Amino acid sequence: MARVTGIGGVFLRARDPSRLAVWYRDRLGVPMSTHGAVTFHWAETETTTLALFAHDTEYFGEPGQRTMLNLRVDDLATLLEQLRAQGVEVLPQTEDSEFGRFGWCVDPEGNRIELWQPAPGM
C-alpha cells in the first residue's frame, strides 16, 4: 500500500510574500531564497511532526490562523532575547516538557510561530 513518508513542505498565505521572506530571514535566520522558499535537509536524528488540533484551539493564537509553524532552534532563550531586542512580538510564556523547551513569537502578518529547542537526544 502506498503511504505518506514525511512532510514535504509548509506553505503560508502572505499579503506581502517578499517582505515576509525578509522578516523570516533577518529575524529567525531562516535562509529564505529571493523567491521566498527554503528546503531543509534533515539529519537522520531530526524529525518533523504533523499534528491535528481541534478547530477551536487557542494554541495557534488568532482564530483565523489555520496553520502554525514549529521551528527547531538551537538556543531558545537567546533567540527570544534577540527577537525582543529587534521589536518582534514575543509571547511572555515558555514551556518545558519532556520534548524540550517551547516559546512563541508572532510574524508581521500576525501568524504565531512556535520555537522549539529539543530536549537532549531528540
Structural commentary:
The chain has 122 residues and is an alpha+beta fold. It has a domain at 58-118: 2,3-Dihydroxybiphenyl 1,2-Dioxygenase, domain 1 (Roll). Helix content is 18%, strand content 19%. It has two helices and five strands; from the N terminus they run αβαββββ. The chain has helices at residues 17-28, 76-85, and strands spanning 69-72, 89-90, 95-97, 100-106, 112-118. Strands 1, 2, 3, 4 and 5 form a five-stranded mixed β-sheet that branches. A hairpin with a 2-residue loop joins strand 3 (95-97) and strand 4 (100-106). The mean pLDDT is 87. Keywords: Lyase. This is Putative enzyme related to lactoylglutathione lyase. GO terms for molecular function: lyase activity.
Brief overview:
The chain has helices at 17-28, 76-85; strands at 69-72, 89-90, 95-97, 100-106, 112-118. The protein contains two helices and five strands; from the N terminus they run H-E-H-E-E-E-E.
Q: What CATH architecture of the domain at 58-118 do you see?
A: Roll
Low-confidence stretches: none
Tell me the major beta sheet.
5 strands, mixed
The CATH H-level superfamily of the domain at 58-118 is 2,3-Dihydroxybiphenyl 1,2-Dioxygenase, domain 1
What is the name of the CATH class of the domain at 58-118?
A: Alpha Beta
Can you tell me the CATH topology of the domain at 58-118?
A: 2,3-Dihydroxybiphenyl 1,2-Dioxygenase, domain 1
Shape: globular
State which percent range the strand residues make up: 15-25%
Helix-strand string: HEHEEEE
Category from helices, strands and their pairing: alpha+beta
Number of helical elements: 2
Radius of gyration: 15 Å
In round numbers, the mean pLDDT is 87
Helix content: 10-25%
Distance between the ends: 30 Å
* Secondary structure tally: strands: 5
Pfam families: Glyoxalase_6 (PF18029)
Protein name: Putative enzyme related to lactoylglutathione lyase
Keywords: Lyase
Domain VOC: 6-118
